[in-house]
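To illustrate the input format used throughout this study, we show a single complete record. The first block contains the structure-token representation of the backbone; no residue identities are included at this stage. The design step must infer an amino acid for every position from geometry alone.
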């Protein structure tokens, strides 16, 4: 029954996406005018990306080869400048080499998307490992975003990374309500965000959100990435502090140790601030009891000291 439902759902996704591309013109933008109709070129190209199979590395090769061979697969050119555009008089500035060397531009466009997706996802993985002590994303997410970037370009890849947390909240709540599961891998959120961006590209780019104003000005792009990175670091630090609180919900039998990642001079015992994240800890909490001992949901006397340890240790976390 599950296989039948999955097949019907995949067929419905293919039909719905095809209708959006061909009838609703969800990917038709002013800057990109392909020589070949979307039905014969870009639609099969993107359906290859949506097809659920273990085609990560081969998918990257397919995207690069198809982009070089065609030169008309891009959802948006590698660079478009709208700063000097005048509505009704002058359009956006597109570099001349893009118009003259379609295949070279296809290679550059696909490679830029690949590097953007892989590098930013790897950066998130590295930062989360430095702050939390374990990577929040797996290496499969890095390769997945590399393939997605190779298919849709760097601008759309940034949109996918921006939308994926919201998709994670929505899908996570639905999974929680329907199945009771507390954890779902981040890969489905990235994949669903990629499909959403491809299906709503025209409205994201110009008709509704007009993100083209950001992507045509490179300082805005750099500032947006830096701001997102700062917000990510802040959220990860808050998550680390939250997990370090020596508290435990009533009736919860799971260990509730402080899980501090590095030694801190503010602690009486430096070893107590170097506990590792494990399923079974042999450390002691601030109240002196083993971490496996259940306690009511209330702050321990060492709560403020734990927060002070976290704040002080955060200052030197990136020095290693």
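Output of the design step:
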């Amino acid at each position: 029954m599950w296989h039948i439902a999955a097949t019907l759902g995949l067929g419905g996704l293919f039909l719905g996406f095809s209708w959006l591309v061909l009838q609703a013109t969800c990917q038709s933008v002013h800057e990109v005018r392909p020589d070949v109709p979307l039905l014969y070129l870009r639609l099969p190209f993107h359906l290859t990306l949506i097809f659920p199979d273990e085609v990560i590395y081969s998918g990257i090769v397919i995207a690069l080869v198809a982009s070089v061979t065609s030169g008309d697969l891009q959802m948006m050119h590698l660079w478009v400048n709208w700063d000097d555009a005048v509505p009704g008089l002058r359009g956006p500035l597109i570099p001349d080499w893009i118009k003259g060397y379609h295949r070279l531009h296809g290679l550059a466009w696909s490679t830029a998307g690949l590097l953007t997706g892989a590098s930013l996802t790897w950066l998130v993985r590295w930062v989360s490992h430095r702050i939390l002590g374990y990577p929040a994303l797996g290496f499969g997410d890095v390769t997945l975003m590399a393939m997605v970037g190779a298919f849709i370009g760097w601008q759309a890849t940034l949109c996918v990374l921006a939308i994926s947390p919201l998709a994670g909240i929505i899908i996570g709540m639905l999974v929680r309500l329907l199945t009771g599961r507390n954890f779902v891998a981040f890969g489905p959120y990235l994949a669903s965000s990629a499909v959403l961006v491809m299906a709503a590209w025209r409205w994201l780019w110009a008709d509704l959100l007009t993100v083209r104003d950001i992507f045509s000005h490179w300082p805005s792009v750099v500032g947006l990435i830096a701001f997102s990175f700062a917000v990510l670091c802040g959220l990860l630090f808050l998550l680390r502090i939250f997990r370090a609180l020596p508290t435990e919900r009533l009736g919860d039998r799971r260990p509730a140790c402080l899980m501090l990642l590095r030694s801190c001079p503010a602690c009486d015992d430096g070893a107590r601030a170097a506990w590792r994240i494990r399923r079974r800890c042999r450390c002691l909490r601030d109240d002196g009891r083993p971490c496996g001992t259940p306690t009511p949901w209330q702050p321990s006397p060492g709560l403020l000291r734990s927060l002070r340890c976290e704040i002080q240790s955060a200052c030197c976390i990136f020095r290693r």
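Structural context for interpreting the output: Residues 102-132 form the longest helix (31 residues). Residues 256 and 291 are 6 Å apart (CA to CA).
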